[in-house]
Design brief:
alpha+beta; Aminopeptidase; Alpha-Beta Plaits; 6-stranded mixed sheet; 4-stranded antiparallel sheet; 9 helices; 19 strands; elongated; binds zinc ion
């Protein structure tokens, strides 16, 4: 079996639903130690984190990934058990096959092959691996980034192994991510009898016009890198259940996915202004899970584009679509951050799978990137 495929199977066979790591990081540490990496285990709460570094020089290239996986869903819906890796008709099945144990296997094999062939490279290689990406992400990469900042580590290049690809390995490179801003809104009214509306204040009626304004506002036009910022309501509740009662309040949740053309502060002010304009009585709580980022166009992006073209024979598309990723914790340090991983068609699904050739294709691409950004010194 090809080496990255084999290691991907070894990781999948270690069940690790968030925040569990299932022994994946111990297996990884064992492989990296053999290459001369120094290993730091950084557990925070129930979360396992690993920082491994080889070399002391800059530039520093860091592979970022997570060993945790999402729950399996009903076991009897799987055509083979989710934690028993299975290869059928050239396809690798198992929870974590795409998101993202194959990428960690490919990081490892790429590093092994690179170090074997380039004994004299310039710079350093590191791994930042957590078991808390699919969960709250509070004791994972963000905590390790704080620890790295306190230790004076400066990351130059960062490759996140999230499944970025669409149809073939490497056909899409993520070069940034939109930000996410949530709002929990409570509109206050006055409860009363539907027959006596003048004695009550109906929050449903009062909110309707503001809702219409919020969902039709153009927040920005988007640009070459990002689609337009959007606001979506996800929950809306009001009413006592009785048909003859005007409710006393209405609650609503909404989320903005936003580009780097606007800031969270700006968006909060504009939403508040719309609510005020409609003279609503309300309380609003903001949740800021992620800042947007767009990576700078530097050596890593150029190397990644060239490596994919050389290994796969096509030019990758640049994208900022999709949800958030741990790249958001690394980008603010000024590091160049790209996301490159396998096809994401089945992530988080029953029968998660990728082509069995993907782990070793990825390993070859990652190795080629290492050769380009860490040339012989
Ligand atoms: Zn993931």
């Amino acid at each position: 079996m090809d080496p990255a495929l084999q290691l991907a199977c070894d990781f999948i066979a270690r069940p690790s639903v968030t925040p569990e790591d299932g022994g994946c990081q111990a297996l990884l540490a064992e492989r990296l130690q053999k290459l001369g990496f120094s290993i730091q285990l950084l557990p925070f709460g129930k979360v396992s984190n690993l920082w491994a570094r080889l070399g002391t020089q800059s530039p520093l290239l860091v592979f970022v990934g997570h060993t945790d996986v999402v729950p399996t869903g009903p076991l009897d819906s799987w055509s083979s058990p989710p934690f028993h890796p299975s290869i059928r008709d050239g396809v690798l099945y198992g929870r974590g096959a795409a998101d993202m144990k194959s990428s960690i296997a490919a990081f490892t094999v790429a590093s092994e092959n690179f170090i074997k062939t380039q004994t004299n490279f310039s710079g350093s290689i590191a791994f930042l691996i957590t078991s808390d990406e699919e969960g709250p992400a509070t004791d994972g990469t963000c905590r390790v980034m704080d620890w790295l900042a306190a230790s004076g580590e400066q990351i130059d290049y960062c490759i996140v192994g999230e499944p970025s690809s669409n149809l073939a390995t490497g056909d899409v490179l993520k070069v940034g991510r939109r930000g996410s801003l949530g709002g929990e809104l409570l509109i206050h009214g006055k409860q009363g009898h539907v027959a006596y509306p003048l004695l009550a204040e109906n929050p449903i009626h009062r909110f309707t016009a503001a809702l219409q304004d919020l969902i039709t506002t153009v927040w920005d036009e988007g640009d070459a890198a990002f689609p337009q910022t959007t606001l979506q309501f996800s929950n809306l509740q009001s009413g006592t259940g009785a048909g003859n009662v005007i409710p006393g309040e209405l609650s609503a949740s909404f989320n903005l996915r936003y580009s780097t053309a606007v800031t969270a502060d700006e968006l909060e002010q504009r939403v508040t202004a719309i609510l005020d304009q409609h003279q609503l009585r309300y309380t609003l709580q903001w949740i800021r899970p992620a800042q947007p980022f767009l990576t700078r166009k530097g050596a890593l992006l150029a190397a990644s584009q060239a490596a994919i073209t050389e290994c796969m024979g096509f030019v990758p598309k640049m994208s900022t679509s999709g949800g958030t990723s741990d790249g958001r914790f690394v980008a603010p340090t000024g590091a160049e951050v790209i996301e490159l991983g396998p096809v994401n068609a089945t992530i988080h699904q029953i029968n998660e799978n990728i082509p069995a050739t993907a782990p070793d294709e990825l390993a070859t691409i990652y190795q080629r990137i290492l050769e380009k950004v860490l040339p012989p010194g």
